[in-house]
Design brief:
The complex is a heterodimer of chains A (about 450) and B (about 210). By secondary structure, chain A is an alpha/beta fold. Chain A folds into 4 domains: about 5-135, Rossmann fold (3-Layer(aba) Sandwich); about 145-315, 3-Layer(aba) Sandwich (Rossmann fold); about 320-385, Orthogonal Bundle (Helicase, Ruva Protein, domain 3), CATH 1.10.8; about 400-450, Arc Repressor Mutant, subunit A. Helix content of chain A is about 50%, strand content about 15%. Chain A contains 19 helices and 16 strands. Chain A has a 5-stranded parallel sheet with strand order 2-1-3-4-5, sandwiched between helices. In chain A, strands 7-10-13-6-14 form a 5-stranded parallel sheet. By secondary structure, chain B is of the alpha/beta class. Chain B has one domain (about 20-205): Collagenase (Catalytic Domain) (3-Layer(aba) Sandwich), CATH 3.40.390. Chain B has helices at about 30-40, 70-80, 130-150, 170-175, 180-205, and strands at about 20-25, 45-50, 60, 65, 85-90, 95, 100, 105, 110-115. In chain B, the strands form 2 sheets. Chain B has a 5-stranded mixed sheet, with helices on both faces. Chain B has a 4-stranded mixed sheet with strand order 3-4-6-7. Chain B is globular and about 60 Å long. The relative contact order of chain B is 0.13. Classes of the chains: A alpha/beta (about 450), B alpha/beta (about 210). The interface between A and B is medium-sized, with 20 and 20 residues.
């Protein structure tokens, strides 16, 4: 069963709110009712809506004011404007302001049913467009989409721009999860081979018995089950870039075969007799120390020299802690959108836990941690509790500058809750279980400011 | 001279389960087929009450239609009695303030529902449909609205009677019974409603 849709009817007339909401509720949707634009925005801070049905004539900010705010802050939420008969010029203005459709009261029930179906599809397409935009950026691997402003990353970007236009083989060194494939894609995207394919092969994931046929392809009848010829990944990468991830895992036999391809620029399919031309740029990556592997006899020296014409080192996350907040916000935004959660920031304490942590799994680990936090969060602001499992000591043991007196502890606690609730006094008072007047008095007493 | 047959629908005092209330004059065969169908679907006794007049306050003179929301409130306030649910049946055209017409209306988990036979007599081409087809349409609309009062939403499976039908074509296309899923959910909801009512009765008696 699909996700339950969420709609909101915004109208100052009770009868309109109730009749439209009653109709929509039968579509197995959750329907909220707001009697003003201000109340609607308040609801939108807490929930994500698929479609808003908004009356134009309302006291306060009115339908147009609400429409502008929604399109500014929640661009994928669909807005339908409701107008009375004879005020179609309002509807025209609303469409110019970005409304997705309009209804003139009273409307035909058949038309309303079709409109809801059409708009839900429209909303799905809007979300898909956002997703695909990200996906294109990911696939094209533009350097400006690799997150990082630290000196280490700035230097890496400069190196990428320098070596990308050449045809030389590149070896990327870095711990697991540092984003080596993203760097490889960035090199490809900035090379002359951008028009060709980028073909990644995870050498550690393909069984040895299949490696040869996967990389070189095979001719019909070359072995049992080869009922038709198949292109190898080298052929697929023609005119583009071949990315050998975890190149340190390649068997010595395959190293010899690949070495021949790199030297002669020709290869044979398994069972084939015709030499085929190989036209690809090679980028390899490994988390192993290949010098050490060569010395130990596990990696052929001649193959090592072939793949290691240019070496780039991708720094681990703990060496570029300045980038953590940027990455956190990037992932937060992405997962909030993908999972439809209304989460948009982290408390100061939560961010401190993340920047202090050593991240042995690097960016990939950070990505997973943020995804988990977004999925499990029930508030807009993720607090330190969500990351307590990363470094329990940090959360439980008081730090040197932690509050000592009861008053200091009270100030710190009130400030933390106010920050978490974005200084919304009503919400903060509810969390603190005191009334608003008491909270106002405390704020004045301790001179707390936003 | 042929003796006039007495009406076959028996107006009994409400038993407290489901009441069908004719709002204005409704022919006996319509009331009987509606009551029998609901009884078959819910497996609960259904009573047909004597005819009651439509409240004038519900009439929207500008549109020459009755406001179905007002009719629902009227039934809830004056004719629900001890019944679990009440279904009003009228021959008048009904609508609500935002829709040009409706075949019937109910609030999810509400106490009352209303269906109108006004638009069910003609085909999409404006010709009179057979009595059989007309009665089938009335039954579909009645079961559909009663389903909503037991919190069953619109169904998107095949031709279940709980599928939304905003036109006569859509109404004709669907079946006059529930799909397996909706039937299951309805049986559960009816069971819950009966248990809640028993508990309330016990509480009232002991209190």
């Amino acid at each position: 069963m699909g996700r339950k849709n969420r709609f909101m009817v915004v109208d100052d007339e009770l009868i309109v709110r109730e009749s439209l909401a009653a109709w929509l509720e039968k579509e197995n949707a959750t329907v909220d009712r707001a009697e003003s634009g201000e109340q609607a925005l308040d609801f939108m801070e807490r929930n994500l809506y698929d479609i808003l049905f908004v009356d134009i004539k309302m006291p306060g900010m009115g339908g147009f004011g609400l429409l502008e705010k929604v399109k500014q802050f929640y661009p994928t939420t669909v807005v339908v404007i409701i107008t009375a008969y004879g005020t179609v010029d309002h509807a025209v203005k609303a469409m110019k302001l970005g409304a997705d459709d309009f209804l003139v009261k009273p409307f035909d029930p058949e038309g309303l049913g079709l409109l809801v179906t059409k708009l839900l599809e429209h909303k799905r397409l809007l979300e898909e467009k956002e997703y695909l935009k990200d996906e294109v950026i990911r696939v094209r691997g533009k350097t400006d989409e690799i997150i990082g402003q630290s000196p280490q990353m700035t230097a890496l970007f400069e190196q990428i721009m320098e070596i990308a236009p050449t045809e030389s083989s590149v070896l990327l060194l870095g711990e697991t999860g540092t984003g080596k494939e993203l760097i490889a894609r960035a090199i490809h995207a900035n090379s002359k081979r951008l028009g060709g394919p980028f073909v990644p092969i995870n050498c550690g994931a393909i069984p040895e018995s299949l490696m040869e046929s996967e990389i070189f392809g095979y001719e019909k009848g070359s072995f049992t089950g080869a009922v038709r010829p198949k292109k190898g990944l080298i052929e697929v990468a023609e005119g583009g870039t071949l990315f050998l991830d975890e190149v340190g895992e390649i068997t010595p036999k395959m190293q010899v075969d690949l070495l021949r391809v790199l030297q002669d620029r020709t290869f044979f399919r398994v069972g084939g007799v015709e030499p085929l031309k190989a036209d690809f740029r090679l980028i390899s990556a490994t988390h192993r120390d290949l010098n050490h592997e060569v010395a130990a006899g596990n990696f052929r020296q001649d193959f090592f020299y072939r793949v290691n014409v240019i070496t780039l080192r991708v720094p681990p996350l703990r060496e570029r802690r300045d980038d953590i907040p940027l990455l956190v916000m990037h992932f937060l935004k992405r997962f909030a959108r993908e999972t439809n959660r209304n989460v948009d920031s982290l408390s100061e304490q939560a961010m401190k836990i993340l920047t202090d942590y050593d991240w042995p799994g690097n960016v990939r680990e950070l990505e997973n941690v943020i995804e988990r936090a977004v999925v499990t969060s029930r508030k807009r602001v993720i607090t330190g509790d969500a990351f307590a499992y990363l470094n329990p000591l940090q959360v439980c043991v008081p730090q040197g500058n932690s509050p000592r007196t009861l008053e200091e502890a009270e100030i710190a606690h009130i400030r933390r809750i106010l920050d978490e609730e974005e200084w919304n006094i009503s919400r903060a008072a509810k969390v603190l279980d005191v009334d608003r007047t008491t909270l106002h008095k405390k704020i004045r007493k301790y001179g707390l400011q936003r | 001279m042929k003796k006039k047959e007495p009406p076959r629908t028996v107006h009994r005092p409400p038993s407290g389960y489901i009441s069908v209330v004719p709002l204005g004059h409704i022919k006996e065969d319509v009331l009987r087929v509606v009551a029998d169908s609901i009884q078959g679907v819910l497996r609960l006794p259904v009573d047909v009450t004597p005819e009651v007049g439509l409240p004038e306050s519900a009439f929207m003179s500008a549109r020459n239609q009755y406001n179905v929301l007002d009719l629902i409130k009227f039934l809830e306030s004056n004719h629900a009695g001890p019944s679990l649910k009440v279904l009003g049946v009228t021959a008048k055209d009904i609508a609500n303030p935002i829709l040009t017409y409706v075949f019937g209306t109910a609030f999810m988990d509400g106490k009352a529902a209303v269906v109108s036979t006004a638009r069910l007599q003609l085909s999409v081409n404006g010709e009179l449909v057979s009595r059989e087809q007309f009665l089938e349409r009335v039954v579909k609309a009645a079961i559909h609205e009663i389903g909503h009062t037991f919190n069953i939403p619109h169904c998107h499976k095949d031709h279940c009677v709980m599928r939304a039908s905003n036109s006569l074509t859509e109404l004709d296309e669907k079946m006059s019974y529930l799909c397996d899923y909706c039937e299951l959910f309805l049986a559960e909801a009816v069971g819950d409603a009966l248990r809640t009512r028993s508990a309330q009765t016990r509480q009232a008696e002991s209190g």
